[in-house]
Automatic annotation (TrEMBL):
Name of the protein in question: procollagen-lysine 5-dioxygenase
Cofactor(s) needed for function: Fe(2+); L-ascorbate
Keyword Cell inner membrane: no
Enzyme Commission number(s): 1.14.11.4
Organism phylogeny: Eukaryota, Metazoa, Chordata, Craniata, Vertebrata
Location(s) in or outside the cell: Endoplasmic reticulum membrane; Rough endoplasmic reticulum
Predominant location: endoplasmic reticulum
Keyword terms: Dioxygenase, Endoplasmic reticulum, Glycoprotein, Iron, Membrane, Metal-binding, Oxidoreductase, Signal, Vitamin C
Reactions catalysed, as given in the entry: L-lysyl-[collagen] + 2-oxoglutarate + O2 = (5R)-5-hydroxy-L-lysyl-[collagen] + succinate + CO2
InterPro entries associated with the record: Collagen_mod_GT25 (IPR050757), GT_PLOD (IPR057589), IPNS-like_FE2OG_OXY (IPR044861), Nucleotide-diphossugar_trans (IPR029044), Oxoglu/Fe-dep_dioxygenase_dom (IPR005123), Pro_4_hyd_alph (IPR006620), Procol_lys_dOase (IPR001006)
GO cellular component entries: endoplasmic reticulum membrane; rough endoplasmic reticulum
Cleavable signal peptide: 1-19
Length: 730
């Protein structure tokens, strides 16, 4: 290359580099001022979706003009956008007066199924407009007022015609597209349509804010639209954007529009619907929790549907004791032979038909509410439908789903585990809930005014209700729409359902393996429902053994401590008496190895009533920790072959001669009260000449079994004495 050629090439290269750097260094186009951006939306009534849209617009300080509010909604052909033509007509009338404002940008959107995810509409649109695009379309549309006017002025169809088909035909016409400077938002820089793109859209958590991100184009869309099944994903996104929840601030809207019950002169009337649809453990405790709810009882009516004959005795007992506590108490029993859906329809309709019913609180018998303020807290949250989060103990099973699969069943949302474990706390818009929820009476008389909410196709009753709330279209209209009904169909309103985990409300109990063949069936629930089992059967002072050294040592190395409740003692005795086959205190005993008992008692073994596995679990859970405390350095295996209830009476067997136990250590629990149920009794330890003659019901002795603690059972002189004995680590 000669010198002059080199200089020419080098000069061209320098100019090229300078032009590139100059372009990169040039300032970005100024955003469109917010007073030059007008959002137009069509809504005939204030639905939950509309209110959410307006909330996001207010957050960004956008100017919104609502068209058609209060107008009757006109339908469209089935399978098309209902009332689409009505939207275009209203938009046409509104834009006509704005057509001369050449610098005014109009964003036309559907407020029912749309969310504003960030506040940069003007900033994003300006670069597009500088490239001669006056209108950008997707499911929504943005553009300069004169061009929007030119588009909608072409509308000359009916209100029930399809608006999307109208816009599509204009765009597909090359001449019209060019004359209107129209383009599509191919890379979702402004508009994100979720239909067919859910897998591409994620939440992007930043410092103090959350954005919607399209992972395919790495864009941050401003307007997010959902239709069909994607509305549920839109609701999920709306739990976070634009400012609903973040890691730094938590829930930003949880305290919006609260109802201050303390400021009300009269509390709202609530109908409680209780549903016992299968055998349920701890039902008496369930009713007691209902009774102790902190809410004026003269404002509570109770409707109970019981589908189980087994539970009639529990309901009868509760009714007899509390018949005058509530404003009313109605029971529909198994003799009515109602399905779940029919029973739930009946309960909800009682509130619907009663103009004084302000709220309907539905609760299944497998819900243990531990928060006495539950009804108050739900009412104060002021949502149309809201449920308290309840979960299975130490499991991820709860009363809500964070997402649905395409066929309408369970799918796990990204935030489900965090919500269940209360790592994210707030009030969450969800597609499905069950077991326990509160519904406003006004909603039952308006949006959910159709009685048959719980019976739909082949769906379970709870799924049918949630679908009814989400879609809000008459079942009859969906199944067989008539031509004359096309113009009367209402737009799907989509009543939002919420779950709150702002407080600890309680738990779900397991009913799956509940065997009702025993006399006191809850005793067998130590595995399935350990928390409820402990609350019912373990002495209230048991934990003080470890926190306050709450025990006694009446004789050397004989420790005395509380372990069982009176209820546990009574039910164990009842179970044994119901079984009835007492051994009679004979030496010959086929129940034990060798068939001979040296020091026999009149007893029944735990194994005989099928309670041996449960009792060994009790020993490991509640006796082993005490053993380690009092016999430091000894780690029990928690194993015992001999676990039995002894019955002492003056007539059959009043006492037990001196003996050692075939155990490393023994526990001996008193199952009834001295001087009330019997006289006499007690235990004497010979080596120490020490007697314990006033056993306490529910308290256990623990003492070494061999060598040092020869002991005898003192005579029972009157009545019947019961004790429960285990020879541990034989």
């Amino acid at each position: 290359m000669d010198y002059w050629t080199f200089c020419l090439v080098f000069s061209f290269f320098v100019k090229l580099v300078n032009s590139v750097y100059s372009a990169e260094a040039s300032p970005a186009p100024a955003p469109i001022p917010k007073d030059k951006l007008l959002i137009l939306t069509v809504a005939t009534e204030k639905t939950d979706g509309f209110n959410r849209f307006m909330q996001s617009a207010a957050y960004f300080n956008y100017t919104v003009k609502v068209l058609g509010m209060g107008e009757a909604w006109k339908g469209g052909n089935v399978g098309h956008s209902i009332g689409g033509g009505q939207k275009v007509r209203l938009l046409k009338d509104a834009v006509k007066d704005l057509a001369d404002q050449e610098d005014l940008v109009i964003l036309s959107v559907d407020s029912q199924n749309l969310h504003l995810a960030c506040g940069s509409v003007g900033r994003v649109f300006r670069p597009w407009s500088q490239h001669l695009h006056s209108v950008i379309v997707s499911n929504s549309m943005i553009g300069y007022a004169p061009y929007i006017n030119r588009i909608v002025s072409k509308w000359n169809l009916d209100d029930n015609d399809d608006d999307q088909l109208f816009y599509t035909k204009i765009y597909l016409d090359p001449l019209q597209r060019e004359s209107l400077n129209m383009t599509l938002d191919h890379k979702c820089q402004i508009f994100q349509n979720l239909n067919g793109a859910v897998d591409e859209v994620l939440l992007k958590f930043g410092t103090g804010r959350v954005r919607v991100r399209n992972t395919l184009y790495d864009s941050l869309p401003v307007v997010v639209h959902g239709n069909g099944n994607t509305k549920m994903y839109l609701n999920y996104l709306g739990n976070y954007v634009p400012n609903a929840w973040s890691y730094e601030q938590g829930c930003s809207h949880c305290d919006d529009d609260l109802v201050e019950l303390s400021q009300l002169k009269v509390y709202p009337d609530v109908l409680i619907g209780v549903f016992i649809e299968q055998p349920t453990p701890f039902l008496p405790e369930f009713f007691q929790r209902l009774l102790t709810l902190d809410y004026p009882k003269d404002k509570l009516k109770v409707f109970v549907h019981n589908n189980e004959v087994y539970h009639e005795k529990h309901i009868q007992r509760f009714w007899e004791e509390n018949r005058n506590v509530f404003k009313s108490f109605k029971v529909v029993g198994p003799e009515e032979n109602l399905s779940q859906g029919e029973a739930r329809n009946m309960g909800m309709d009682i509130c619907r038909q009663d103009a004084t019913c302000d709220y309907y609180f539905s609760i299944d018998s497998d819900v243990m509410l531990t928060n006495r303020q539950t009804i108050k807290l739900l009412i104060e949250q002021n949502r149309k439908i809201i449920g308290p989060l309840v979960t299975r103990h130490s499991k991820l099973w709860s009363n809500f789903w964070g997402a649905l699969s395409l066929d309408g069943y369970y799918a796990r949302s990204e935030d489900y585990i965090d919500i269940v474990q209360r790592k994210r706390v707030g009030v969450w818009n969800i597609p499905y809930m069950a077991h326990v929820y509160l519904v406003k009476g006004s909603v039952l008389r308006n949006e959910l005014k159709e009685r048959n909410c719980f019976v739909l196709e082949k769906l379970d009753s709870d799924m049918a209700l949630c679908r009814s709330a989400r879609e809000m279209t008459s079942h009859r209209e969906k199944e067989s729409p008539s031509p004359e009904s096309f113009h009367m169909l209402r737009p799907p309103k989509g009543v939002f359902m919420y779950i709150t985990n702002r407080h600890d409300f309680g738990r779900l109990i397991s009913t799956a393996n509940y065997n009702i063949s025993h006399y006191n069936n809850d005793l067998w629930q130590i595995y399935e429902n350990p928390v409820d089992w402990k609350e019912k059967y373990i002495h209230q002072n048991y934990t003080e053994i470890f926190t306050a050294n709450y025990m006694e040592e009446p004789c050397p190395d004989v420790f005395w401590f509380p372990v069982l409740t009176e209820t546990a003692c009574d039910e164990i005795v009842e179970e044994m008496e119901h079984y009835g086959s007492w051994s009679g205190g004979r030496h010959e005993d086929k129940r034990i190895s060798g068939g001979y008992e040296t020091v026999p008692t009149d007893d029944i073994h735990m194994k005989q009533i099928g309670f041996d596995k449960e009792w060994l679990h009790f020993i490991r859970e509640f006796i082993s920790p005490v053993t380690l405390k009092v016999f430091a350095g000894y780690y029990t295996k928690g194993y015992a072959v001999m676990n039995f209830v002894v019955k002492y009476t003056p007539e059959r067997q009043a006492y037990l001669r001196p003996h050692h136990d075939s155990s490393t250590f023994t526990i001996n629990i008193a199952l009834n009260n001295k001087d009330v149920d019997f006289q006499g009794g007690g235990c004497r330890f010979h080596r120490y000449n020490c007697s314990i003659d006033s056993p306490r019901k529910g308290w256990s002795f623990m003492h070494p079994g061999r060598l040092t603690h020869l002991h005898e059972g003192l005579p029972t002189t009157n009545g019947t004495r019961y004790i429960l004995v285990s020879f541990i680590d034989p």
